[in-house]
């Protein structure tokens, strides 16, 4: 569960909506720490093979018609694969670490 600004958000709820997008094969929703809201919603998305071109903005627009604004992932990455264990379980904590590192790197370069 993600707690954003005191509101409980269930990743599976958001994942189910994301995969309704015609170009999306799979989605993983998780959180990263956030100074203002305690946690921020993030998503890694895998597209279907031969899917029409799809950008992060397309996903956010699609979600804005289906989810409350605070449930829409602030940070979305379209990826070819998820980081998994040897048994195939997605390691969401590693996805979170990568987003945090990217944001810190971007902040330092400004």
UniProtKB/TrEMBL annotation:
GO terms for biological process: fatty acid metabolic process. GO terms for molecular function: medium-chain fatty acid-CoA ligase activity. The keyword Mitochondrion does not apply. Residues 13-89 form the AMP-binding enzyme C-terminal domain. Keywords: Ligase. InterPro entries: AMP-bd_C (IPR025110), AMP-bd_C_sf (IPR045851). Belongs to the ATP-dependent AMP-binding enzyme family. This is AMP-binding enzyme C-terminal domain-containing protein. It comes from Rotaria sordida.
